[in-house]
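Recap quiz, item 2
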Amino acid sequence: MTAIPPVDFLALSAILLGIGLFGILTRRNFILLLISIEIAMNAAILNFVVFAAYSGTGGGIGGQAVAVVLVGLAATEVAVGLAIVLALNRVRGSINVAEATTLRQ
Amino acid sequence: MGALDFLFGWAFLVPLFPALAFVLVGLGGTRMKRFEWGGWVAVALSFAAMVVGVLIGVGEMLSPGTYTDTSTVWLTVPGPVGPFPNGFSLVMGTLVDPVSALMLIVVTVVGFLVMLYSIGYMHHDHGLPRYYAELSLFLTAMIGLVLSDNLLEFFLFWELVGVCSYFLIGFYYEKPSAASAAKEAFLVTRVGDVLFLLGVFIYFATYALAGGGAGWAAAGFKFASGNGPFLGSLVTGASSPTLTVAGLMMLAGAAGKSAQFPLHVWLPDAMEGPTTVSALIHAATMVAAGVYLLAVTSLFLGFTPTDQLAIVAVGGFTTFFAATMAVVQPDIKRVIAYSTISQLGYMVLAVGAGFTMVGMFHLFTHAFFKALLFLAAGSVIHAVGTQDLFKMGGLRKHMRVTYVAFLVGALSLSGIPPFAGFFSKDDVLASVYSQLGAHPAYWPFFLLALGAVFLTGYYIFRAFFLAFHGDRPRDAALPAAHEGPWVMRVPLVVLSALAVLAGLFVFAPPFAHLLAPGFTVGGIAPALQGVALGANVPPVYGTTDLALSAVSVALAGGGVLTAWRLWGNGRVYALPEGSPAAPVRRLLLNRYYMKVGYDWIGQRAVYSVARAADFFEQFVIDGTIRGIEGTFARMSDGLRRIQTGVVSDYAAYVVTGVIGLLLLLLFLGPWIVTALGGG
């Protein structure tokens, strides 16, 4: 199996980050915003795994461990985010973030 | 120390009675309609103060000495501070000695009588709770001042007296002239107050440095008990310029409070207050405070010869100067006001000449006949509703009690025997006369004081004849005169009796010893007595120069007769056209243009400086601050606009920032590493 150079993974990571940022900056729908954040976050997680895999035996499984924790964290974050979405929808009847400018009723 | 000692422990009670009245009436006076809006409460408590005050005064006469109560420590400054290795304490104590006992009697008796008289006089006025509360506070302050046992406590009450006079002179504050008179009284006396405070500081510093910390700490900040030898050591260096300056500062303070030239301008204008307040201010409180200050300073601290000459000069000159202005006044209250300034001049003169107790004696008698004159004048004003002498006339028929009371007061003021004013004024003249040999510089001021005797007899009887004699009021529109209620008549009768009898106290053993050559104030070094009481023997009445008495009585009688010639029997004397006296009359009516001059100083000099300071403050200081503030306001206003509240915008800022940082690192990274010395 030809080894894939790490640069390719990092490029993928950069592309994911770019897609995520683009989504964060352009979307107004809260759910799409959350999805974009997830994509950007996965770019970071990917980096951990890549560097862990390419750092040889000296690196241990630290990178992978962090990645797993981060996946869990991302799930938690989405849960909180979706709760906010629900609350926002209940209060305002809309989940457009451009309209929720005041953080109060 | 005798059986009466317990009495002097009660001294602190005396100011507390009117203070209680101040609190009660001040807080609850509006709910005391049935008690004349708190007036009867104030009368009752001032009566209590009078009883205790007179008891203490009589006790002091029977058992002379200096009694102090310094158990109330106000402030303790732990040492070592400056020259005080053990620190020092400031005490709010009481001190009863012959001088303060005399004053205590005057203040409490006159205070009570004025308070009682007010019930009738002020009956129709509004704001009575305020009136009685302020009058009570005034009394508290004056009693506290009299009983002070140190200069700092003295100063506190002194200022309280000043602010109360401001309140009461401006009692009719809706009248612009009253409001402005109150302000004038406050500001003019303030000039003296500031200098007085400076004098206190100078004395404090001088004593502290001369006596060393231990001596001063033992003496506290007192001007009396226990520091006799200490003061004696001061007297040996009595010509020290520092002490001369301190004495002059005391004189300035006294001149402001006691309306001596050139700070006399406020007193005639203070007539804007109710007549009862004038009576209190002129007889017992306020103006007496200045003379009392000079008295305690001369007795306890001592004056240098230069100071004494300055005091004699101010007193002697004021005596004559004020009397000339009283001669032409058309306002009954202002005539009496100028006579107060003039009489205060006599007291200052006597203190300056070294006869402190003689000055205090004149203060004592003056308090009674001046209160009498004012209350009688108040009775007239109450009856006819005007203060203009030229509108009055013929009141003798309708106001018998007032007529007699005013006559007694006027005779006493003129110095006709056997009325009280004769004894004290004669003592003043005799005591100054006795110093003329040793101090030829006193001559002009002695002659001025003698001349003022003639003027006094003239101006007070001019007012008397104008108001009471003739057939009917010159202004037909005046209401029919009537005598006041009993609360107004009783004080007149009591004060008339005192104005006749007070002078005879000079023969009574308890008082006589005050004026006797050997008079001492407890704890004072003999060396100081020589300075304070005059090296020569003070005149004891009856042994003085009878010729001098004859001259002064002749002068006073001449004044009275001149007044009768010009104004008696309803005559109204008018200066002939083109008389050379006309410009003089104008000068006197305009009070020597001194008030105009002071106003000019205020409006031109002080106001210009104030305007320049205002400009600097507005444009330079405020301008700088506003410029800085405006810059930040504009900056933050710009920054505020990016706070849209839209989450995406914030995300964009974060992303922009991160990208900016990345670019920075990318391009400047190598340079930063080099700059930090890394490899």
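The mean pLDDT of chain A is 86.
Chain A is about 75% helix and 0% strand.
End of item.
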